[in-house]
Amino acid sequence: MEVVIVPDAKAGGELIAEAIAALVRRKPEALLGVATGSTPLPVYEALAGTVRGGGVDVSRARICQLDEYVGLPAGHPESYRSVVLREVVEPLGLGEDAFMGPDGTAADVQAACEAYDRALGEAGGVDLQLLGIGTDGHIGFNEPCSSLASRTRIKTLTQQTREDNARFFDSLEEVPHHVITQGIGTILEARHLVLLATGEGKADAVAQSVEGPVSALVPASALQLHPHATVVVDEAAASKLKLADYFRATYAAKPEWQGL
Fold first, then answer.
1. Where is the Glucosamine/galactosamine-6-phosphate isomerase domain (predicted)?
2. Catalytic residue list
3. For the chain, which residues score pLDDT lower than 70?
4. Can you tell me the distance from the alpha carbon of 238 to that of 86, in angstroms, rounded to the nearest whole number?
């Protein structure tokens, strides 16, 4: 696992955006997995700026969703489909035909999970999956004790996760109890995993995921099993890392051409 410590969220966003741009330059039809929430917004803002400035042509790129709430009506502003279209797809100048995600309104949600899992494979697999991390170490909505081999499926949100996400709704009562999420096994099939974490509140989860044992209690620790996983953290999120100085020195010595 590669760990990159950056000064702040903006620097992290710019670094990851350039990695995505470099991927699309090599592979114009790349399938990019995106995450929601406030943490990845600097990535999307920086990437959109690169596109507007002519630094990369993303017209053939495709966007796929990591997870989705179950039961929110189509078009609800906080459905993750709406969020991804608003924050990623539209700013990049792409149309909805470039987007794929699970159907959280399906009558048969389990069938929708299985269909989305198959669709990712049929699309050629995810080239780069952007991830956030929960304060309890979850990735996607794979809460603690999720199977490390899990596939796209329905999950029940913990009270802590619902409270964390309540800021996007008018009240906690409006936050759905269930979601569709790519499983950890599904996530690990992406060719490159990039996890971004910022803020002191994520420091414990980052330290456990990077330096602790691989454990279902800390789902993000599964990234240790991946051949190309990059963790980008600001100084606050890196504050509990015992090997922080080593990570700084290792990345500083990395050839510039190698990228993330």
1. 10-225
2. 67, 136, 138, 143
3. none
4. 30
Residue 225 lies in a domain: yes
Rounded Cα distance between 91 and 110, Å, is: 32
CA distance 153 to 38: 24
Task: State which residues form the domain around 29.
Answer: 2-254
Is 197 part of a structural domain of the chain? Answer: yes
Chain Cα centroid distance, residue 119: 18
Q: State the CATH number of the domain containing residue 93.
A: 3.40.50.1360
Angle at 101 between CA 95 and CA 103, to 5 degrees: 120
Cβ neighbourhood burial of 37 (10 Å; 0-12, 13-18, 19+): middle
Domain count, the chain: 1
Predicted pLDDT at 161: 79
- Report how far residue 129's alpha carbon sits from residue 117's, in angstroms, rounded to the nearest whole number: 14
For residues 10 and 150, give the distance between their C-alpha atoms in angstroms, rounded to a whole number: 33
Count of Cβ atoms closer than 10 Å to residue 126 Cβ: 24
Question: Which residues, other chains included, contact 241 with Cβ-Cβ below 8 Å and sequence gap of 6+?
Answer: 3, 5, 203, 206, 207, 210, 211, 233, 247
pLDDT of residue 7: 97
